[in-house]
Amino acid sequence: MKAFEYASPRTEAEVVQLLSAEPGKTEILAGGTDLVGLMKKMIVTPDRVVNIMDVPTLKSIDELPDGSVSIGATVTLDDILAHPYLDVYPAIKQAIRGISSMQLQAQGTLGGEVCQRPRCWFYRNGDGLLSQGVAEGANEFHAILGNSGPAKFVNSSRIAPALIALDAQLRVLGPDDAEQFVPLAEFFRSPQREGQREHVLAPNQFVSHIVLPPIEGRTCATYEVRHGEGPDYPLAAAAAALRLNGFGIVQDANVVLGQVAPMPWISQEAIAVLRGRKVDVALAEAAGEAAVSRATPLSQNEYKVQLAKVAVKRAILLAAGYETGGF
Ligand SMILES: Cc1cc2nc3c(=O)[nH]c(=O)nc-3n(C[C@H](O)[C@H](O)[C@H](O)COP(=O)(O)OP(=O)(O)OC[C@H]3O[C@@H](n4cnc5c(N)ncnc54)[C@H](O)[C@@H]3O)c2cc1C
Question: For 10-17, what is the mean pLDDT?
Fold first, then answer.
């Protein structure tokens, strides 16, 4: 590991002051379950690490006057699972339970989960985020959607699809007391050149809170297709949030796929299929088909198309209150 300066600020303003405007010079440390491994392998080599775990204002879950729920970036995944305010957002708790690791859930934070770096093995082996090797082979866990540019990794966050489906916003802090609220749907991007991050944060900005709007009659669910039980990433996942009228007709829908594209993938095609129709198995299946209609699998990951289809279908059925059974 490269030697680095360690800072442990106590306020949000101090965090910002300690961050460099120059990419790669400083890194935020939350639970460290992702960052420390990357530093040990010299994939990430900051001069300064800024620990945000000792900032009290980042640690709580609060209900805001308008009924929104604000979650501090360093709230652990376990604390989210245990918190009654979040019972009305089952899609989030289902995604966290999928991690199936007491250690990661106790140590990992929500901010770190959303900002974690891609699990792409080319990247983790030091070949860069946009390695040409992906197109040549060993791409079975890579993207099937949004992969026409240089980025072919998949966004690793398990919780981001659910948060996007629920219209979450990030509170982002930066220099000169700048406070911005960024819809999570606009936070991720597909890097176009090596060194560009997978999100829009400037190097001297950080996420302080994640804000969920009131659930207001919507239902939601996450469905993951996994290898098996245990702390491994899903092969494909989807989150759905639906607003149904009294007759089960979809008034409003969000469908977001995970683990299939360089960013959580909002499926406008699936949403268009659902709007104004009554949810049943056939409609959920049609939405699944639509969600993968533009898929462009790589040489070894065509199998993910079927898994993504199933994830979308089952997330929609679960959100609409159907039992989906096992996979
Ligand atoms: C062996 C192993 C297996 C894993 N398996 C899974 C799994 O199956 N499923 C899964 O979802 N995850 C898995 N993970 C990843 C881990 O659960 C998540 O990465 C974790 O939630 C990250 O949280 P953290 O607080 O530890 O983040 P950290 O490691 O502290 O940070 C992760 C990244 O986010 C940045 N960051 C952190 N907080 C902020 C913030 N507030 N603002 C801006 N940037 C920030 C950091 O600089 C860093 O780049 C695994 C990790 C390991 C080591």
Answer: 98
